[in-house]
């Protein structure tokens, strides 16, 4: 049904591609898929990093954590999938530092683990910021 507070159109600065994404009808499926809300730290990654031990309420809170959600380019988000920074970084290089900082903040806030490859990638990246 219709809701008087739906977002139907607008422009977003995409941190993954550096593009401004502009849409005029987000009820159109093609446009809606072109703009996605990404969990910067993917739910699957969180699960593998300790969230598997959380109760349902804590998982729900993590899934809705505004500090971990970004409006991004759909195709870029699809390429990211559930990858961590050792496996994927935004194609728009000026976003790398902010991406890494948010990743660390989210992992720290939620007491999630970091594997060796992820840690090495983050250390290397953050040294250049």
What would you say this structure looks like, in words?
The chain contains 6 helices and 4 strands, in the order E-E-H-E-H-H-E-H-H-H. It has helices spanning 29-34, 43-48, 56-63, 74-80, 96-109, 116-127; strands at 10-13, 20-23, 35-39, 69-73. The longest helix has 14 residues, at 96-109. It is globular and about 45 Å long. The N and C termini lie far apart (46 Å). The model has no long low-confidence stretch (mean pLDDT 93).
Summarize the helix and strand pattern as letters: EEHEHHEHHH
| Helicity, as a percent range | 40-55%
- How much of the sequence lies in strands comes to 5-15%
| Number of E strands | 4
The helix-and-strand class reads alpha+beta
**For the report, how would you describe the main beta sheet?**
2 strands, antiparallel
Number of distinct helices: 6
Radius of gyration: 16 Å
How do the strands of the widest beta sheet line up side by side? 1-2
């Amino acid at each position: 049904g219709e809701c008087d507070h739906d977002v139907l159109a607008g422009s977003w600065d995409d941190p993954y591609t550096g593009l401004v994404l502009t849409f005029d009808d987000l009820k159109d499926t093609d446009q809606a898929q072109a703009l996605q809300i990404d969990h910067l730290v993917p739910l699957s990654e969180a699960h593998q990093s300790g969230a598997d031990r959380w109760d349902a309420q804590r998982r729900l809170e993590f899934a809705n954590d505004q500090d971990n959600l970004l409006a991004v380019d759909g195709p870029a988000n699809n390429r990211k999938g559930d990858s961590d920074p050792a496996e994927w970084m935004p194609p728009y290089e000026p976003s790398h530092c902010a991406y890494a900082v948010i990743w660390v903040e989210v992992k720290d806030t939620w007491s999630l683990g970091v594997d060796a490859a992820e840690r090495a990638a983050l250390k290397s990246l953050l040294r250049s910021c």
